[in-house]
Amino acid sequence: MRKILIIDDEQDICTLLKKFFSKHDFESFSASTGKEGIKIIEGDEIDLAICDFRLPDYTGLEILQKIKIINPSIQVIIITGYSDVRIAVEALKKGAFDYVTKPIYPEEILLTVKRALEVEHTDKLASGKRKKKPSERKFISGTSQQSHTVQKHIELIAPTDMSVIILGETGTGKEYAARAIHQKSKRAKSPFVAVDCGALPKELAASELFGHVKGAFTGALNDKKGYFEIASGGTLFLDEVGNLSYENQIKLLRVLQERVVKKVGGSSDISVDVRVIAATNEDLKNAVREGDFREDLYHRVNEFSIKLSPLRERKEDIVLFARYFLQVANEKLEKNVIDFERDALNLLKSYHWHGNLRELGNVIKRSVLLSQNETVSIGQLPEEIIHPNLQVTSTDIDALSGTSLKEVAEMAEKRAILQALKKTNNNKSKTAEMLDVDRKTLYNKLKSYNIDF
Predict the structure, then answer these.
(1) Which residues 6+ apart lie within 8 Å of 168 measured at CB?
(2) DSSP structure class, residue 134
(3) Mean pLDDT across the chain, nearest whole number?
(4) Which residues in 199-352 belong to E strands, given as ranges?
(5) How far apart are CA 91 and CA 94, in angstroms?
(6) pLDDT digits (tens, 9 = 90+) for 58-115
(7) Is residue 315 a contact partner of residue 349, using CB atoms and an 8 Å limit?
(8) Chain Cα centroid distance, residue 114
């Protein structure tokens, strides 16, 4: 029975999820603070943790980092509000599997949990534990000029053995592009191993990448293969390569130059035949200038580069990807939602998509889950997509250094109007009554704040 830990200070959520998971043959535990959750992880073999981003003692990012140090194989799902989506994206960079947004839908979390537990843990595969079938991944090329360029570059570079660096914001599909290169290469029948360098604890990164021998350090009870050995003959995808420590950058450079690895605590070299594809959302050129990334390593991994544009810069691709995610959600949720209503599509095309394809996929999945008809309507979309300009949080206000009191008051007023509209299902008369203003004043405010219905 797989073990799930729920870390949330809202007892109702913990109770709801524990009961729900027990019905689906999971053993679940709960904790109301980060400290309590960490204590449970240290004392039990937890497979997956679901953690609220805002806890009394820690943030979701802090808990995520602590969990990954204790046991890097534990999958972590972050619970967040839509106003924190950009923060949740940061959690993905640090090694979270995914995030789910409030309000909580147990079926949605169950789907995410199952996906997380199906992911192939290559370190466990190497030691013969819990062999899992890797989840199917598919690279979809868009119709925009940027997408055509990316597809052309993939076709050109795939047959070679050149190192590739894929650039782009979080959620733009860097791993999918890397897999597409691998699948079109001569190494397609050999392993593809994906490693999130940002999620590797600094103390264990060398062991994870290059392996270790028994007794090399406290806890090294057996010899262990590193990712380079596991991927030998195939492709190693190093995501967020800029997060590697300077010491591990030196070791990585040696592997790329000499095609050998030396295990932590070992004395002999082991030959490896690996094609490296790296990815980053950082400006590595700037990191080189500031001394945070080795220039010789940069040139070694950057034999060829592919730039993935953010979704907001290729809006003509949004409908294609939305319909693809619709098909995926239908299969996973066993539903038959055919398409989107035109107004819903227009909102999807106009939204900023801070989390890019990952955020779009999550939104479509939730919309399909909520849909009771054959089409997705505006009613199934998150409020933040319907009213994207009105999402004002305490974080936004804290960031307004030097802002006038009038501007801060206007931001708070926007938020109050948005909340009232949501509670009244966009009924203007009831909204005016709730806010204790007349309809004319409300209409003026709606016009002033560019709220369009």
Answers:
(1) 174, 279, 281, 307, 308, 309, 310
(2) P
(3) 84
(4) 235-239, 260-262, 269-271, 275-280, 304-307, 339-340
(5) 5
(6) 888 888 888 887 887 899 999 887 555 667 677 777 788 888 887 788 888 888 898 8
(7) yes
(8) 16
